[in-house]
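Tutorial, part two.
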Amino acid sequence: MSDYITTFSNIKFTPATPRIEDIKIEDIAHSLAHMCRGNGHVKTFFSVAQHSINCAIEAKARGYGERLQLACLLHDGSEAYLGDITRPFKKSLPEYLKFEEVLQEKIYHKFLGDVALTPEENAAIYEIDNVMLYYEMIELMDYKVYDKAPDLVSEPQFGLRDFIQVEQEFLETFKKLTKN
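Running the prediction step on this input gives:
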């Protein structure tokens, strides 16, 4: 059995020892557009890419700069290579969390540059991620994950969308934020 996965762009990617040159935005966009939030336990398919796009839009609506918007777009990028594990189970997997942290840092490094995210930036990403989770669960499961509704500034879309369109929007958002 090999120790790598073959990505959409045909890269042999080793999740346990990721190389920054093997990280491709096209692989992240494609994978996340095909990966369902909530481990598929939602009323209709809603991808991790849709969630990430909504997070970037919320960051912009809150007045954050392009760096933080891009970080929000990429905040679940490691899941393109490791898979999405539900929060309650993930916290009981300390070794997985280490792999995820290393890979996510490499993704940020590749696309955000050498300067690490500040604690304030990480806190903003975490807050936006949790705000989106709250509204996603209301829309997709009729369930409130928190007693008090957090502030939402943008108007996220939670409907079923074509995989290809979501992948393209993810890539277009990335290109706009990186001017690439």
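The chain has a mean pLDDT of 95. In part three we will examine how such features are distributed along the chain.
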